[in-house]
Design goal:
Elements lengths: L2 H17 L8 E3 L1 E5 L15 E3 L5 E11 L2 E11 L4 E9 L5 E9 L11 H8 L7 E11 L11 E6 L4 E11 L2 E11 L11 E2 L2 E7 L1 H8 L8 H8 L7
Main location: membrane
InterPro entries: Fert-Immune_med_protein, LY6_UPA_recep-like, Snake_toxin-like_sf
Keywords: Cell membrane, Glycoprotein, Membrane, Signal, Transmembrane, Transmembrane helix
Length: about 250
């Protein structure tokens, strides 16, 4: 094998190596999802960052994290990855304010090396510290849970909790959040300000697409055709008849 052949082999190897490198100007971003509803706490929850991805030209790094509370139960849903959206600084706010069911979000799009590196709920902790919510209880109680209907929202795990005076309507819906490899469908039940869809103003939160469907219990109540059964147990069982069928 002559010197010219070796030179050709080296050239092909070099070209192959170059082709696997990220394009100049392309960002490396963390890639992760979160969908946790068991033993979630504000100060101890951690988002593990185990993967990264080379984005397309002009794409930035996104991180969007949702913190859901209903009664004493909590859930976290989140997405990290590449996005075509314009950059914006961190925005943390309530999509649904307390008292009663609350949904807080923190989100940003950045354009520097692995900049979507949030690993905890600190922005939500700060938001809650600056938010006052009435704790005066009413005589109304509602079935309460957040999580998959086959896990945290099984009837045995659904609790009955008294509502705050300012949020004394029972709410029950199935929520579906999708973005990249995130595909989270879960039940949300608890006390709310009124019977309206909580997220009717949000088709998307960052890159997360949102679908909210009232379950059969809520639809029956609004149409005046509520089933003849009564009491919390009936409400729980009806609440588990989900609107989504994947």
């Amino acid at each position: 094998m002559g010197p010219q052949h070796w030179s050709l082999v080296k050239l092909l190897y070099l070209l192959g190596t170059i082709s696997t490198l990220p394009l100049a100007g392309a960002l490396l971003c963390y890639e992760a999802t979160a969908s946790n509803f068991r033993a979630v706490t504000l100060h101890n929850w951690k988002w593990l960052l185990l993967r990264s991805k080379v984005c397309q030209m002009r794409e930035g790094c996104e991180e969007t994290l949702l913190f859901i509370e209903t009664g004493t139960q909590r859930g976290v849903v989140g997405f990290k990855g590449c996005t075509t959206a314009l950059s914006y600084p961190r925005e943390t706010s309530y999509l649904v304010s307390p008292p009663g069911i609350s949904i807080a979000s923190t989100s940003r799009v950045c354009r520097s090396y692995l900049c979507n590196n949030l690993t905890n709920l600190q922005p939500i902790v700060q938001l809650k510290a600056n938010t006052f919510a009435s704790v005066e209880a009413s005589s109304q109680s509602c079935p309460t849970c957040v999580g998959p209907h086959t896990e945290e929202c099984l009837p045995n795990f659904v609790s009955i909790e008294f509502c705050p005076e300012e949020a004394s309507s029972c709410y029950s819906s199935t929520l579906k959040f999708k973005a990249g490899s995130l595909n989270s469908t879960f039940l949300l039940m608890g006390c709310a300000h009124d019977y309206q869809n909580l997220l009717s103003d949000y088709r998307s939160i960052g890159s997360i697409r949102v679908t909210e469907v009232r379950n059969i219990l809520e639809r029956a109540r609004l149409s005046g055709t509520e089933a003849s059964c009564r009491g919390p147990a009936c409400g729980i069982l009806l609440g588990l008849l989900l609107a989504f069928r994947d």
